[in-house]
């Protein structure tokens, strides 16, 4: 599993470098592919990390891996948002045109679906012990509480996360990535057993697509609307 995630990271890094070289004269297409590759890395690695949640000792192993790979993503995916909620901020403030923002969000959801298909193919090969039976899980039902509580948790986590991102903008990048990783790890520890502590609509769709098919209204309310509402609350206040 660790070799698989490392291989995905290396492959995405090569694709991003090639995209910058080949599509330098076509900024929109370059932005689309950079965002898509970056979101693909996060979704694919997180899909694999979810299979390692029961590795002993629990929860130390999964939290350590969460922190480590969050730092890795932060160091290797500079310049990419990988979160539709994060893309809303520059759109709301006029930093990027509406068309460019929609292009990024489209790339993020396309990458989320692509990552899920790719990981299903990898799991079907059953190269590692955690892959056995992973495809047959269906909807893993990440909500282990009521819809109202799940909505409030994802809303609160989104507000805390987005507020922290704003507050650490002035911090040196080499320290900022560790602060963000530590925050994400703490949120996963606090609410991972209740909602999964995702607060990323594209990532939620990649992790639990079957759940959106079965209970679209409730899952879109918790994992799409709640994080987006949290982002708008931050934008309105600050």
Automatic annotation (TrEMBL):
Bilayer topology annotation: Multi-pass membrane protein
Residue intervals passing through the bilayer: 180-204, 216-235
Annotated source species: Psophia crepitans (common trumpeter)
Keywords: Membrane, Transmembrane, Transmembrane helix
Principal place of residence: membrane
InterPro entries noted in UniProt: AQP11/12_channel, Aquaporin-like, Aquaporin_11, Aquaporin_11/12, MIP
A single MF term (Gene Ontology): channel activity
Claim: Metal-binding is one of the keywords in the record: no
Gene3D superfamilies documented for this protein: Glycerol uptake facilitator protein
SUPFAM superfamilies linked: Aquaporin-like
Subcellular location: Membrane
GO CC field: cytoplasm; membrane
Name of the protein: AQP11 protein
Family statement drawn from the similarity comment of this UniProt entry: Belongs to the MIP/aquaporin (TC 1.A.8) family. AQP11/AQP12 subfamily.
